[in-house]
Input
Amino acid sequence: MELITIFLSALMGVVGTGGVVLDTLAETALRDQIAGAEDLQVRIDNAPNYQVVSGRIDHVRVAARGVETRQLPGLRIDSIDLETDVVDVDLGRLQQGKLYLDEPAQAALRLRLKDSDLNAFFQSPLVQGWLDTLQFSLPGEANARVQNRYGLANPSLEFLEGDRFRIMVDLQDQVTQENVAIVVDLGLTVVNGHRFTLVDPIITVDGAETPPELLESFVQGAQDQLTLRRLEALGVLTRVIDFKVHDNALDIAIFARIEPTSPLLSQQPTLQAVPPAP
Output
């Protein structure tokens, strides 16, 4: 959801100027808040036009290709298409360099992620750093001293037919210096728009399927985490409206509603304090 709040911060940074070339200003402001984009277009529709000087915009469309954000360095997003309903901000606070909404903001977001881009990201120092923080022991090894014995490395991903994925990673034994290949094949479906459910997962370790009890533990632990309702505590209602794997890419469409009280808004940097409209 940070993509939406980054955009709102950039957009609102130009609202108070009352300029007549808001599309260009918003595009420049958005480029300033992301690491890069191969192509970026912004269109702002307002009727009547003077509403923008009071902090209100009726409709915004953003189309971007080849986007990299500062929050996830190394991840390339193949395409982003975003449309908002009315966005209405507190102009007084905006003029002080702070982003506050006068009413909830709603947006539809479509993303395309290619497997080649994801695999390049998985090899980045950021992802390896995440893997290095994981601590676990194998079944039967309850001693806390062995929690740092194993590590994960060389993750990769394949998109399969039927909205299925194949995740591959090496389990490294830090004592014996041996690697064991772990392969996870699974499907994903979306239930009630917010929960991802694993479909027919298969886990093999060094070519052998895992015992049913270990598989059940993995499925239960993963599904407890795979819900977008966790974002509601941050004032963001999110629902997946489309989810499809095809042509070595993942397409996902999301509806989001951000409440004025969301702490994500206050965490986004504004460009500068906006001068009062003349």
Remarks:
- The chain has seven helices and 13 strands.
